[in-house]
Design brief:
5-stranded mixed sheet, 4-stranded mixed sheet, alpha+beta, 5 helices, 42% helix
Length: 192
């Protein structure tokens, strides 16, 4: 039973390795079937054009892997390297790149066409905080019941809003009617 279990674990790790390789789309060691290869050593020196068997033997003697890095070249370019270390460094670089990315989210400010002065000022203050934080804004004015007959009230409200946040934001998309609402997009001004 333990022999079957260890064989199953070995099969699992082989499948994981194959999935990783197919995801990277790089051929390594015995997967390389080309007759001639341009081989580069682990330290970056060119070894010249060799057969696949000779290149694999050199890589095996150095206890490293033969990896095809440029399959479209003539002859294909292969490099002798530690493939596991290469994958580790590549995932580390990708993780670092994701960490340095700035994610811009879109915050929404909703108002009604009959908003009071103090409520409007509160919405403007909240919008200024969002814009200073680097977020984009979707500002919408919703019309209730018969107020839809007076869309100019919503446009005037959005113009007042645009003037109030003009110090920290610029209009990305002007006001546009969408159903029972008028929508405008505001983006933060670039930091000086």
């Amino acid at each position: 039973m333990s022999a079957d279990y260890s064989a199953l674990i070995l099969f699992y790790f082989i499948c994981l390795e194959v999935l990783t390789i197919s995801k990277q789309e790089l051929q390594i060691n015995e997967e390389i079937r080309d007759k001639e290869l341009l081989v580069i050593d682990a330290d970056g020196t060119k070894l010249g054009v060799l057969s696949a068997k000779e290149a694999q033997k050199i890589a095996f003697d150095k206890d490293l892997d033969l990896v095809k890095i440029a399959p479209q070249a003539t002859p294909p370019v292969c490099r002798i390297m530690d493939y596991g270390k290469y994958l580790f460094e590549q995932t580390k670089r990708e993780k670092e790149a994701r960490k340095n990315q700035k994610v811009v989210s879109i915050k929404e400010i909703r108002m009604f066409s009959t908003i009071d002065t103090h409520d409007f000022e509160t919405k403007v203050n909240q919008a200024v905080k969002f814009l200073q934080g680097g977020d984009k804004l979707k500002v919408s004015v919703r019309f209730r019941k018969r107020a839809i007959a007076h869309p100019q009230l919503g446009e005037e409200l959005l113009n007042r809003f645009k003037e109030a946040v003009s110090a920290v934001g610029t209009v990305e998309k002007p006001a546009k009617m969408e159903g029972r609402s008028i929508v405008m997009f505001v983006s933060p001004k670039p930091a000086k």
